[in-house]
Amino acid sequence: MNLYNHFFITCPKGVEDLLAQECTAAGVTEFTTAVGGIEFQGHIEQAYRLCLWSRIGSRVLLRLTDFQADDYDALYAAVMTVDWSQHMDAASCFAVDCFTAHTEINNGHFATLRIKDAIVDQFIERTGVRPYIERETPDIRINVYLGKQFSAIYLDLSGQPLHIRGYRQAGGEAPLKENLAAAILLRCKWPALSAADRTLYNPMCGSASLLIEAAYIALNRAPGILRKYYGFYGWKQHSPECWQTILEQARIAEHSLETLPVLVGCDLSPSAIAFAERNIRAAGLKNYIQLYAIDSLKTLPVLPPEPGLVLTNPPYGKRLGDIRELKSLYYRLGHMLKHQFSGWQAAVFTSEDALAKTIGLRAHHKNTLYNGALKCTLYQYHLHGMKQPSAVVATAEDTAVTSQQAVQITTTVSRSENATMFENRLRKNIKHLAKWARRQKLSCYRLYDADLPQYALAIDVYGKQAHVQEYKAPAEIDSSKAEQRLQEALEIIADVLSLPMHAIVLKTRQKQSGNQQYLRQDETGRTRIVDEHGLKFVINLHDYLDTGLFLDHRSTRQLVRKISIDKSFLNLFAYTGAVSVAAAAGGARSTTTVDMSNTYLDWAKDNMALNDFSSSTNRFERADCRQWLWDAWKARRSFQLVFLDPPTFSNSKKMQSSFDVSRDHVELIQHTMRVVDDEGMLIFSTNARNFRLNADALAEYQIEDLTGLTTSEDYRRKPAHRCWCISWQAVTYHWSELMR
Predict the structure, then answer these.
(1) CB 457 within 8 A of CB 489
(2) SS (H, E, C) 493-543
(3) pTM score of the predicted model
(4) pLDDT exceeds cutoff 70 at 238
(5) Range of the domain at 505
(6) Rounded distance, CA 207 to CA 213, Å?
(7) Co-location of 397 and 427 in the same domain
(8) Of 215, 271, 513, 710, which is least packed with CB atoms within 10 Å of its CB?
């Protein structure tokens, strides 16, 4: 067997020590550890073994030559020095991967073209035949590294990255690469645990990468045993006999499937479980890994009583807003580990330290690993001194349960006295309000609004979702305790409303300036339609502080709907035009909707179209409402019914000056009344706290307080707005009878 002086096996950053152990196991005695890989001298047989057996490596590279080059012509000349006929035939196919850190040869694409040209030109000069390019499964793959001080040409013996094991049929969102999954397991000392017949439980298993890799380690199965392609298959110097010997040795070394420890995975997503089942079947492990499509943070599958390893790779979210929402998941994960897995080992892999802190456990060890370019941490825990698990019990027969025979045991959660009070209040509120909402044909309503001082939250129900706004805690409140109480509250909300945690949208509400409540908070674009008294409205629970529909104005919209028949209607500071829709539904002769945001005017148009109201009688005008009123008065425009709900405060750049409703409401109402018909009326509303209407300054008008009528049942506990009817002459409506 020929001795080749230099090989290089690459790996993700941070696991070089694990790769070095694999090199030693493959018989390599001389190697040097570098960042991102191991350089070694040895026989091709050892390179073959690493191709087959490395769980950690990415590519096994055979160095053909090293050189120095100052420009693209020198690169071309260096490639021509290799006798390519020793490695491939003229009719063969090849591919080139080029990485450059060179200051002069810095265009990787052009460098790749010059390398290809050199190889092709050599064959044309010698044989008159040109080889061709094949990207997926070439006969040989050439890997070129270009540095200022050192450059090298390699033959890629792996052909494809070694994390491609051959069993992945499908993957969910952001699946772990198999070599990263293996590195996580090795860091957790899984080989020793599996040898001791310990259980591995993955409560958020996704497409089952961790479970399958754990099975392969426990079985001593070569990770590359199922691969159909290696880069040396088409190499002219390949030794099929040597390779077949290594394959046969691997098959003999593999343990019986019957020796596998218990491997259990759960996922909330049925599609993820379906992906996992396909991958497990392709890996030859069908019926040897148990899967459950359940919310594992609420329900536990049956597990053996002996302590094992809980290992999970929960989502760690890079999209704006994800981190805050995911804290609840991590809090619940920590709660489950504390109360259900005493004596077990646990490990959580995440990129976010803020999420890991929410788990509420002190890691005895942390390992830095890289998921691609993303720096992550593996947090390892000893779950000692915790409450003994009450739900984890099983018999030998139980451990054979598969996803087709889902045995589930609900966990029992102990809660603080304050949390119990909060839960009881939610259950009391929902018992009353859910019945009321059904009678009113409403799909959304306010369930809770800081009813208890310990839980300063506003909770709105939107069908099968909940919109939770946390009122920002005072600075003197301990942030960690406040966060823990919040996560406990979210868990209770999910339980009381029978919702999965991902159906709860969390935001923080604090004192706003300008139009901040209208500013975009996220970029999901996720909208849905809700029903209110037979009307439909588009809402977005994620992207803005408010959702597009002010629930406290529900009765106000009903009032406008009842009095708008055959009237010209004007909606100022219209937001998403919900009151305009109500006026159109009430038979308004025309509606005019004014707002200075194109986004909200478009939203208002969508709401109007959703309810099939004619576009010809409904106008939408973008303007500063105060300037618009001045222009409308000069143009002698008038309306029989006007709705005015200005912001509490605004200093938007789109407005000519700042606005404060307490300071400026008199002037705004006077200017609005100039466009109100002599027999018309203005419905004025504000959500400003401690607002006092200056009735003396508005003495020329007839004013009637409608707040009691426009406050609906779900806001009786804590009214959110004040509302008045303002007119030139006394209104003849019997308001109470009208609103029945």
Answers:
(1) yes
(2) HHHHHCCCHHHEEEEEECCCCCCHHHCECCCCCCCEEEEECCEEEEECCCC
(3) 0.73
(4) yes
(5) 417-510
(6) 12
(7) no
(8) 513
